[in-house]
Amino acid sequence: xxxxxxxxxxxxxxxxxxxxxxxxxxxxxxxxxxxxxxxxxxxxxxxxxxxxxxxxxxxxxxxxxxxxxxxxxxxxxxxxxxxxxxxxxxxxxxxxxxxxxxxxxxxxxxxxxxxxxxxxxxxxxxxxxxxxxxxxxxxxxxxxxxxxxxxxxxxxxxxxxxxxxxxxxxxxxxxxxxxxxxxxxxxxxxxxxxxxxxxxxxxxxxxxxxxxxxxxxxxxxxxxxxxxxxxxxxxxxxxxxxxxxxxxxxxxxxxxxxxxxxxxxxxxxxxxxxxxxxxxxxxxxxxxxxxxxxxxxxxxxxxxxxxxxxxxxxxxxxxxxxxxxxxxxxxx
Length: 332
Known about the structure:
10 helices; alpha+beta; about 25% strand; about 325 residues; four-stranded antiparallel β-sheet; seven-stranded mixed β-sheet; single chain; elongated
């Protein structure tokens, strides 16, 4: 008994109690052996026991909204868990299992309340210790949740953004396009799509290297942002390919936006070097663009992409650095 009371006195839950108080507590604790991988309780279950780890290690995890499990705590010797079920009668907030052969000390609910009512000073000290330790754990949880939020925001951005330009990526554009069609384009509403390629982009890569090509794409992406209206969606598809989704936009207005994009590309000036320390060359870029509008030219997302892509090809075939619609080049 003396070894057990010494152990209890060294824990955060029972520190500050006298020898007699620790002895009274020890008499109510039951020992439970949990071989490795034993599930102690599951998330959502009802329970009326508080557990103290005497030896071994207990892990806990929660199930996230996508069905995956995330490990949140590790309880080693001297730490306790399950207090909310015994104090508040709440369902278990996580699943706990023995990560290695573990010995637990179990305080059942009925014995917990015996301590509170039969030994008021022990009950008061015990509840104070639970509250103090829980505040510490809440601070840990707060840091964990803050990290999780930051991780989630980073993951969300990675899922929809192009890392080089900060524009949206192909996945986001295609999903947005599909959603627009699902919502319907009736009642005179239009949806325009502009496809854009940088002209002779391979020449930049060949003469100055991939890093120079990345610089050109990044500069072009920043320039394109300035040509768009509120609500327009700009995306980098891959390489030097860009696309722009223009909601509630007819053909004439879409051609005007595309022309602004073309002029913005012309305004980009780069100083590039073929080799480190070599002379700088002034390089300008131009772009070819194809425009199509739904439902005028297409009745589905795939058809709209294909139609605007054909218009882009027509712009290239007619000399590049120009805008073309489904009927061919319109501006240069």
